[in-house]
Amino acid sequence: MGFYHLMFLYVILHNCMEFTFAQMPGFVSIDCGGEKDHTDKLGIEWTPDDQIIYGNTSKISTENETRQQYQTLRYFPADDRKYCYSLNVQTRTRYLIRATFLYGNFDNNNVYPKFDISMGPTHWATIVISDANTIESQELIFLASDPKVSVCLSNSTTGLPFISTLELRQFNGSVYLTPYEEQFFLSVSARINFGAENEDPVRYPDDPFDRIWESDSVKKANYLVDVAIGTKKISTKLPIANGKDELPPQKVMQTAVVGQNGALTYRLNLDGFPGYGWAYTYFAEIEDLNPNKTRKFKLVLPGAPELSKSIVNIQENAQGKYRVYEPGYYNITLPFVLSFKFAKTSDSTEGPLLNAIEISKYLEITDGSFDGAVAASLVSVYKSLDWAQEGGDPCLPVPWSWMECNSDPQPKIISVKLSSKNITGGIPSDLTKFSSLEELWLDGNAFTGSIPDFSGCPNLRIIHLENNQLSGHVPSSLANLPNLSRLYLQNNLLSGHVPSGLLNKNIIFNYTGNENLHKESSGGRHNIYIILGLAVGAAALLIGFIISFLLLCKRKKDHKQEPEASFHVTSKSNATSDGAQCFTLSEIIFATKNFEKKIGSGGFGTVFYGKLSDGKEIAVKLLGNSNIQQGKKEFANEVSLLSRIHHRNLVKFYGFCQEGEKDILVYEFMHNGTLKEHLYGPLAKERKMKWLERLEIADDAAKGIEYLHTGCIPSIIHRDLKSSNILLDKNMKAKVSDFGLSKLAVDGISHVSSIVRGTVGYLDPEYYISNHLTEKSDIYSFGVILLELISGKEAISNESFGMNCRNIVQWARLHIENGDIQGIIDPSLGDEYDIQSMWKLAEKALMCVQPHANSRPSMSEVIKEIQDAIMIERGVVGGSSEEISRNSFHSSLNMGSLDTGVDPYVSFHASTKPSAR
Ligand SMILES: *[C@@H]1O[C@H](CO)[C@@H](O)[C@H](O)[C@H]1NC(C)=O
Ligand SMILES: *[C@@H]1O[C@H](CO)[C@@H](O)[C@H](O)[C@H]1NC(C)=O
Ligand SMILES: *[C@@H]1O[C@H](CO)[C@@H](O)[C@H](O)[C@H]1NC(C)=O
Ligand SMILES: *[C@@H]1O[C@H](CO)[C@@H](O)[C@H](O)[C@H]1NC(C)=O
Ligand SMILES: *[C@@H]1O[C@H](CO)[C@@H](O)[C@H](O)[C@H]1NC(C)=O
Ligand SMILES: *[C@@H]1O[C@H](CO)[C@@H](O)[C@H](O)[C@H]1NC(C)=O
Ligand SMILES: *[C@@H]1O[C@H](CO)[C@@H](O)[C@H](O)[C@H]1NC(C)=O
């Protein structure tokens, strides 16, 4: 017991004897945003993080969550800084660190936060919140090499970074020892208690290290599925002998599943994989078998036959019943989608048994920055000052706010900016040890003493020491800094002579306001400001000016020549500064040859092909017969809003035309038409899109939608996403079209009176019922598009989905939930796809079409999944397959599973031998 360390401030914990439960030593449980200490039902003592000077706290309340530590959180600004918690640890000791995040909509924002967390300089995870009421959790197991570890939040891409709890648990044994522990953390992916009594996880006090053993009966996305028929739970009350403290706790080992039909199969998603991992299984014979019965089984892995050679005979391996046997692999390649199977051997009377598994991914430790130790020593002197409390590595993952670092693999500090920080005392000598320092700003403080020797920083270019109380002589060594170009020493208490070396240097040098500092030669003359090389400098400056002036003009000229800007603009033009171009009707008629070629029609009107006089191709949308009462002004306002939305994956809006009875919108022309045509229109008959192509289209479209949701303020809900609104350009890059139009429609611009907008088959059922519109309605529609991409079928069809089913969502859900993904895959894909990427996308699509909006993921989460799927697909189909396959298998193995792309089984690294610890 004693103290732990937060942001460099020590907090004394209560003496543990006060509590009923004897707290394990090495437990630190921080209740972020909390107000006072408390002990939870489990007996874990929580301490608030009230010593942290950064961020704000917030109270939240979420359904069914009563634990005090989840009623509060701390959040930080979404800036480019990092915000760190520092914890004291014992070196050469293994720990588990867990960070959890319960959003609870604390900021009343519809945009779920997404940000990074790091462990010291190592990127730990990207936290993507996809549900306000679900706790996100990340765990690492690590060997402490420093007496301090820091967990930092940074790089917020949406929303505000926040944290709910931070927990540190000390191990005392070597179960998690790996040969790589100095270079790799173990990032925990799965820790499952099979045959669990109920859905509650097993943790402290049952597990003295407070690991969380998830129940196998929990039903959640990406969790255990494909459970083999005949899988039965068994349990015992008898104690399980377990030689090492850190093996799974008794309560976990007392339950198991048995494959009564001879096999146990499961599938689960391993986030962060494929990669190298650490995977162990835990067995204990807890059934009272007759002596003439046997239980022998093996792992069946078609991709790695050698691994299935080792036969598990629990009683024999563990030397008895009710004893733990824990075979595993400390370095094994695992895929995203892990399907594992234990099958009984032919001579065994009983089916396989499994009590628990634990799988972690190796996370490579990033070296700290080069100057880390010196920087730590520097700030330790100023513990109580704000700027010294930022914590973590000085440069990684982002530098302290008053610092800049270079981009070396091990970054070096190149700039220190501590102007006006009210710092007293001498200039710390640590500053002179930053060997790559280029800029030093210490002006406007209360530094006393003399100027140190900066010979150790040969790259120094700029030194600001003005407005301090520095005394003594100006060191002549300053003149030896080869790159020095600016030196500011004014308004100090310096004395003696200005070194002539400095006066002779071609630099900007100000040393006024130092009463007793004299220029050597001319005696009593004070306050001399010298700029040498004036002529050269001024000339350079002048040339610079001229060049930049020319550039400016050129840009202007260029701009004028831009074709879309070259059209005649009506005198009472509504064109906005940001580019909504007002076309005249005659221009449009000319471009479309009087609306000759119709290329599409939709809810908002008819689309015609056009070509402007300069050859630019356009799509002209003639909005539906407008009985507009509300007038032209709203139309123009909305249109000018539209013109501010720019994104690679949104169809470009060029301008509009409003003359007479006509309301016209002008867009870029998309050569390859709509996604719909390619999936099941006439184009599909000519050429079927490949799976990778479909994934890339999904990725493009998703990014466009994400931009509408999170990149625009206020965010834009599309309301009418469908495969006919995803357009494809010359290079088959997808862009979303028709965004912003529903708003036009609903807000009274068009004649459309119904409030709920959307297209049957894509329409969010919850929105339909409640009329309450959020981004999640778009997510639903996008889920339907994903299902179309997988199946090549229309969203609504009377024929495609069999009896009593018209709707792609119902049809696909039925198949996917039964584990029958093959049943929905577009037959025209043949077997040219990787089943893992298919599963990934299918499962995400199902999440998107959840009936309740708040169980649907955010767009950014969907994108992550699509990109993972692309990675898998490229790895297998593309040229870069080498990487994954070579790593996955020993060369002597054939590449069964990944080659064919249809085998869901895990690929084990064949050169690793099972090892019993
Ligand atoms: C809260 O618990 C109730 C009853 O168990 C359940 O019906 C409901 O779905 C839960 N809500 C959430 C958000 O988990
Ligand atoms: C925290 O609260 C203060 C005062 O209410 C406010 O000025 C500041 O901007 C808030 N910080 C963040 C990160 O929201
Ligand atoms: C910040 O996050 C984005 C998206 O998650 C990522 O692309 C980017 O590389 C991250 N930046 C840093 C400095 O980690
Ligand atoms: C095993 O022993 C039980 C009695 O202990 C007996 O009923 C059963 O037939 C035996 N089974 C086999 C396969 O020998
Ligand atoms: C695991 O094995 C692979 C292949 O032998 C090797 O490249 C890797 O460094 C090993 N360790 C880790 C932590 O990945
Ligand atoms: C500067 O520091 C002094 C003493 O260290 C303190 O009294 C004063 O309030 C500080 N001023 C500012 C602006 O922080
Ligand atoms: C030198 O510093 C003094 C005091 O800050 C200032 O008044 C003066 O303008 C500076 N000289 C030049 C040439 O910048």
- State the shape: flat
CATH architecture of the largest domain, by name, is Orthogonal Bundle
Name the bound molecules: 2-acetamido-2-deoxy-beta-D-glucopyranose
Structural class: alpha+beta
CATH classification, class level of the largest domain: Mainly Alpha
> What number of structural domains do the residues give?
5
Low-confidence stretches: 1-22, 522-578, 744-754, 876-917
Question: How large is the count of helical segments?
Answer: 18
Largest sheet: 12 strands, mixed
| CATH level-4 homologous superfamily of the largest domain | Transferase(Phosphotransferase) domain 1
Secondary structure: number of strands: 48
Classify the beta-strand content into a percent band: 25-35%
Q: Could you estimate the helical fraction of the residues in percent?
A: 10-25%
Describe the structure.
With 917 residues, this protein is an alpha+beta fold. The protein has five domains: 2-183, Galactose-binding lectin (Jelly Rolls), CATH 2.60.120; 220-353, Jelly Rolls; 378-519, Ribonuclease Inhibitor (Leucine-rich repeat, LRR (right-handed beta-alpha superhelix), Alpha-Beta Horseshoe), CATH 3.80.10; 571-668, Phosphorylase Kinase, domain 1 (2-Layer Sandwich); 675-873, Orthogonal Bundle (Transferase(Phosphotransferase), domain 1), CATH 1.10.510.10. Strands 3, 4, 5, 9, 12, 15, 16, 17, 21, 24, 27 and 48 form a twelve-stranded mixed sheet that branches. A seven-stranded mixed sheet has the order 28-29-31-33-35-37-39, with no helix packed on it. It has a six-stranded mixed sheet with strand order 40-44-45-43-42-41, sandwiched between helices. A hairpin with a 5-residue loop joins strand 46 and strand 47 (734-736). It is flat. Bound molecules: 2-acetamido-2-deoxy-beta-D-glucopyranose (7 copies). The site of one 2-acetamido-2-deoxy-beta-D-glucopyranose has 5 residues, from loops. This is non-specific serine/threonine protein kinase.
